[in-house]
Specification:
The chain is an all-beta fold. The chain has no helices and nine strands.
Length: about 130
């Protein structure tokens, strides 16, 4: 019997159950195109469920709520640039290329984010 590629262990780093809503777009300079949710996450990758299938090798940017404190800021967004490793139906495995924490403004109605107090842009480092 052939192994299901979603159950075969291919990870080099531990994954953590992490479920939160997300938005995605294919290009950084465009508006958010669609939505989904995370299934699990590691320092190197994310498994997500979205409203479409993605082409392996494509780059995608996702934005998601980050729970808990980050440098004493309570409301944060995590913006990730990632490469699609595999996609089957609504499930997509991503390899994290770069990530950035953005502070959510405390003023309701403000639609802009600001960079985190320090170490805002980090490449290939732990995010969980």
């Amino acid at each position: 019997m052939a192994a299901n590629r979603w159950t075969k262990e291919m990870r080099r780093r531990d994954r953590f159950s992490f479920v939160t809503s997300l938005q995605y777009r294919m290009r950084r300079d465009t508006k958010w195109e669609g939505s989904g949710r995370t299934v699990n996450m590691s320092a190197a990758g994310i498994l997500m469920v979205a409203d479409r299938e993605f082409q392996p090798g494509a780059q995608i940017e996702i934005s998601l709520d980050w729970p808990g404190l980050y440098h004493d800021a309570e409301r944060m967004r995590l913006v990730v640039t990632a490469a699609v490793v595999r996609s089957q139906g609504s499930r997509t495995a991503l390899r994290i290329l770069q990530h950035e924490f953005l502070q959510v403004p405390a003023v309701p109605g403000r639609n802009r984010y600001v960079s985190a107090p320090s170490r805002a842009r980090v490449s290939n480092m732990a995010v969980a």
